[in-house]
Write a structure and sequence with these properties.
By secondary structure, the chain is mainly α. The protein contains 27 helices and no strands. The chain starts with a helix and ends in a 6-residue tail after the last helix.
């Protein structure tokens, strides 16, 4: 009965993926400490986990507005208003953000509405200033019409759905949008990516080819076809598309960014650097994505110091990226027989039908130079398919902060400390070491389900290593050598070997 309860707990792990309220409160605390980078990260996660919470969306929208990401802010604040139109704060900020993006009629309408709702409210003075400014400047400013507003809202909503991996929702929004605006090519391009992300590659390609027939030379369509060819490993098609991209000379920043990022993704680092660096030289104030691709293209085209400098700028924008440089651990050894840096091997493991193989795959992912690429791939990781322990392993690869007050998470972390000991003792994962680690994940999965506490990490590492190598070469393996290696006594080693034997899959 106790074992069954433990299995139920593991298969319903909740605490390692906190809810929206958890991240919302962390964001507020970060804001109180003026840690705005952390506040933004936590509020974004809160919005992802609570997409129907008007208050969360409102606060995230304000942060986006302060960062001058006005289109993103507008969609978030408009959605918050749609969910709760009776909240005066939503009305006021909808007036403010409407003014920021040139929707003057809406700015005036919502400012007046706010003053009717709260004539002496917190934002009354600001609302009056909006009315005064736009009434005075109305004839001088360029207006957004209702169609522009609808396009903006729908595309930003679809973008947010896609960022949150809600691809079917994005498809629904975008299909409705192109039905209403059949020549809105940006919507077709985004719809194609959404179809690709749900695995419908043929539909994605059909949409892109249709764009190219109707809108010759559409750069985004060519880039998206190149991305699909890259992920599908269609080298012949990718080569042809790259040749086309090499002939394109975009003038505006949006297209230069798209071109540079695409070329960097598919490994054309020299050309990618050319376009991205040209933007930086001309004063482009990039976001975190821009500096990610600039750093990668600079470093891998031989401009090592420039790459590092660009990554430093990225970390200033998004501190969570510190330690995730795409060139970390890139050595000759990593390119030869180190399985933690073997992209195809890791993908094979995390795609395996065996859950302990997937556990090993996530552990190797945490060490891999391909971590960011694999995580970003739309189809390689599907959290809905994993059991509780696998979700913990994925969270570990993503560097989640575990709660050691929670017994399940505490014991899980100890089991991973054993894996880390085994990894450290071998320095790299060779074909032989992968079987050692695989043995540990078989044992640890069964032990976790049984409520095992993993009390002595070094003794457990010594025990599993002894058990593994004694089965390969029993004549030359002694308990003494592994006890000395890990600084424990032979009796302690014997004790933990006996404990682990209980978790061997004999049944």
């Amino acid at each position: 009965m106790e074992n069954q309860r433990q299995k139920e707990k593991l298969n319903n792990v909740v605490s390692f993926i906190p809810n929206g309220d958890y991240y919302f409160n962390k964001a507020l605390k970060a804001m109180e400490k003026d840690q705005m980078d952390k506040a933004y990260k936590y509020m974004k996660r809160a919005a992802e986990l609570s997409p129907d919470d008007a208050h969360v969306l409102m606060q995230f929208g304000i942060l986006e507005m302060e960062a001058q990401n006005f289109e993103k802010a507008y969609e978030l604040i408009h959605t918050a208003y749609s969910l709760d139109p009776s909240e005066p704060e939503h009305v006021f900020f909808l007036a403010e953000i409407s003014g920021c993006i040139g929707m003057i009629k809406d700015a005036l309408k919502y400012a007046e509405m706010y003053l009717q709702m709260e004539p002496d409210g917190m934002y009354a003075l600001e609302a009056e200033e909006i009315l005064e400014y736009f009434q005075y400047e109305e004839n001088e400013l360029e207006h957004f019409d209702e169609d522009d507003s609808e396009k903006l809202i729908a595309q930003e909503k679809a973008r947010r759905f896609m960022e949150n991996s809600q691809f079917h929702n994005a498809i629904e929004v975008l299909e409705q949008l192109i039905e209403r605006y059949p020549d809105l090519w940006a919507a077709y391009n985004n719809l194609s990516l959404a179809y690709f992300y749900v695995g419908d590659t043929e539909q994605a390609k059909a949409l892109l080819n249709n764009v190219l027939r109707e809108n010759h030379g559409n750069l985004h369509a060519i880039c998206n076809l190149a991305v699909i060819a890259y992920y599908e490993k269609n080298d012949e098609e990718l080569t042809s598309l790259v040749k086309m991209l090499n002939k394109i000379n975009p003038y505006d920043w949006e297209n230069r960014y798209k071109l540079g990022a695409t070329l960097a993704l598919v490994g054309q680092y020299e050309l990618a650097y050319k376009w991205l660096q040209s933007m930086k030289k001309r004063g482009f104030q990039g976001d975190s994505g821009f500096y990610f691709w600039l750093a990668q293209s600079a470093y891998f085209s031989g401009r090592v110091e420039e790459g590092k400098a660009a990554w430093k700028l990225l970390v200033e924008i998004d501190p969570s990226k510190e330690g995730f440089e795409p060139w970390l651990h890139v050595t000759e050894e990593a390119n030869s027989d180190s399985l933690e840096h073997n992209r195809e091997f890791i993908i094979e493991k995390i795609s395996s039908k065996y859950n302990t193989h997937r556990m090993l795959g996530f552990f190797l992912l945490s060490k891999s130079i391909y971590k960011q690429e694999i995580i970003a791939h739309p189809k390689l990781i599907d959290i809905a398919k994993y059991n509780g322990i696998e979700k913990l392993c994925l969270a570990y690869a993503l560097q989640h902060d575990f709660n050691k007050e929670n017994e399940i998470e505490k014991y899980f972390m100890r089991s991973m400390e054993v894996a880390e000991e085994l990894f450290t003792s071998s320095s790299t994962v060779t074909s032989e070491i992968q079987y050692l680690l695989q043995m540990w994940f078989v044992l640890s999965e069964r032990a976790l389900k049984d409520g095992y506490k993993f009390k002595n990490v070094k003794a457990l590492a010594a025990s599993v290593e002894y058990m593994f190598y004694s089965t390969i070469n029993s004549k030359n393996i002694t308990k003494k050598q592994y006890a000395e290696k890990y600084g424990i006594s032979v009796s302690t080693l014997t004790k933990y070997v006996e404990q682990l034997i209980e978790f061997l899959p004999f049944d």
